[in-house]
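Dock tryptophan; give full complex structure.
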Amino acid sequence: MKKRTVLTGITTTGTPHLGNYVGAIKPCIEASHDEDVQSYYFLADYHALVKNQDPERMQRSSLEIAATWLALGLDTEHAVFYRQSDIPEIPELTWILTCSTAKGLMNRPHAYKAAVQENVDAGEDPDFAITMGLFSYPVLMAADILMFNSTHVPVGRDQVQHLEMARDIAQRFNHHYGELFALPEAVVDEHVAVLPGKDGRKMSKSYNNTIPLWLPEKQLRKAIMRIVTNSLEPGEPKDPDDSALYAIYAAFANTGQRAAMRQAYQDGISWGDAKQQTFELINQELVQGRERYEALMAEPARIEQTLREGAVKARAWATPFLARIRQAVGIRKLA
Ligand code: TRP
């Protein structure tokens, strides 16, 4: 019997960047080898549809993200790796949960409230450009989580509120229909670095400051050379704790490398040399994965096949579990 069920979704918007790698992909892939854990990782393409209404970009992003996880060594024997939209039980559960979720609960999420506030501030109608998808997003996310009785859900800090909602939704359902769902817990890893971007703010698509994970070597070097530093000259001591470049280095370095680099900063390493060393360290970590990534991208049928196999495994649990849920709510055969 596995001790924990770990599940997390990756929204398929955009191209994976170094921040995704350090903050989510790498720790999840490491966890996928843990014998005490049953892990579920999936491409949250229904979630992506809320933000991304460009069909080509939708498909491209799913392909890139799946190829990334596979290239980096996700253990698909041991972890269940699937695409949300291959599991019809999820939208079905979403509806069932929607029917017992209070609308008042749905008015609370920060992301939704911020969108409304932005409209109000701009003098627009409060509902301007807000779809039902954005509004209902947390119920779909609750269905993702509750479908597999997940106990531990690794997420970024911005998703903690959605986890609380998933618990509320589960509790309300359990109270009315019987104890079907496990209550999930958010796992926010304090040790996992929040990677700064090229401008020093958190690396994020929304700040347009990302370094894509799979840049060809030359372009990766160029991108690292463009990380913002200050005007201290070679020979002048530099403060590693006030440097986005150092933080990026540190996220890829081991303890010894970190200590040596801190010393080099104090000894006045030039920004050019610090950047070169940062590039070399990151490139060395990614070089093998990059080759596998390119090979996978050239063979999308292989990725498709892997995802379908994942869906079969996911549904081996989801289909009978949903049958129990349908039974519990009274969607039953008449005779
Ligand atoms: N909303 C999450 C994000 O933007 C992605 C996601 C969708 C997810 N479904 C999930 C994460 C279920 C954890 C569990 O990061």
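Observed: The domain at 214-294 is CATH 1.10.240.10 (Tyrosyl-Transfer RNA Synthetase).
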